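Thread: quick sanity check before group meeting

JM: Hey all, I'm pulling together slides for Thursday and realized we never actually wrote out the predicted structure for the chain we discussed last week. Dropping the sequence here so it's in one place. If anyone has concerns about the input, flag it before I start.
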Amino acid sequence: MKNPYLLTHILSHLHSIVRVFGNSGALLEESVSEDFHFTINDWPQILAHPLIRSYDPAQPPLLFSVNEKLVYAWVPTDGGFCLLGPTQLTEEVKFRHKLSLPQRTDNEAETAWAEAVPYCSINVFVEDILLLYHLEYRIPEGAPPLDSQQLLATNCTYEQIRHQALKEFYTTVFENVENGFAHNPYNHEVRECACVRRGDVEGLRRVLSEAYPGRYGKLSEDPIRQAINLGIVAITLTSRAAIDGGLHYETSFYLSDVFIQQMEACHDIITIESLYRNAELQYAQLVHELLVQKEGNMPVKENRHISHCKDYIFAHLHEKLTVQKIADAIGLEANYLSALFRKCENVSLKQFILHEKIELAKNLLAYSDYSYIHIATSLGFSSQSHMGAEFKKVIGMTPRAYRIANSEDDFVKESMDLAENS
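JM (edit): ok, ran it. Output follows.
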């Protein structure tokens, strides 16, 4: 090989064997990792297989499985070929090429040996193959380098799956035309997202109430899974629309996670539909409240320092936050950050932090069974009474009164309880 160190580098990843062959098929070199404690002469059977014998070096390297368990790679070089493996993959990968070779007569020993072969990530395996291929094989001048996606597409079943998907697509299109099937218009979806982006809650209610002769696409054979999948799509789209409308992405993604998890726990279609429709309305309401706070009710492009500041706050809401701590974290002087925040947000940084902590406290009070002291401690308040005083100052009622008024069993919990008892 032109670069002997290459074998050492590859073995440090694969912990297996690398064999170098001449064009005639003669074994020229065998390098075994110190971690590979087995003696195996599998290569004569592999080289005799029609897949290897008919291999054209102009093709990309071959990846193949042996007896549907062990994985090898056959890589062309200037003077011959390299056989990498055996290895086992940490992920399940479906290969186009599957070799069936005679196993040892002692099944127990065969199983024990196979299970002891080291594991390797498919990404690491592919990167080592490409490194060897590009350094040791003379690629025709002007030919583009081979990348990992091309290598996997050539050797795995992705391409067949893609063709099958296209076949089903065109068949479905034809059948839908024949049967007069039509999806709900795309414009309806666009108008939903536009209402969320503008914070237009009432407009969104009107759009959601509109009826169309079409219907939603089929995303699952199971009706419950179908409803959940539609809900995930709706929440994903509106969460991005809300971010476009000015909602902080952490808030948007957090809300998305919560609603999707709630849908996954539900077992009836009406509850699921109610959940994701309420999620859309919640996003519109949050954007509306945000725009009302902005001067002139118009969204403005956020200063990058303010964005970094908010990112830090959302990531550390469970800590005791100070202006100095945030300023140090984002590389600004505390007084400058404080003045900049007030100028851009029309509220002091301390008030913003308190507002976000109170908003999170509201959710915990309404939707969790955590004690008041636990919530106060988790959100960085000095005591339960401190949280209570600040909460009442902002919300106008004590945490206990808020919990009583807002923590009644809702339709989500009732749906889950009914499913568990059915």
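AS: nice. The chain is about 60% helix and 10% strand. The beta strands are 17-22, 27-32, 62-66, 70-76, 80-89, 98-99, 119-120.
JM: adding both to the slides.
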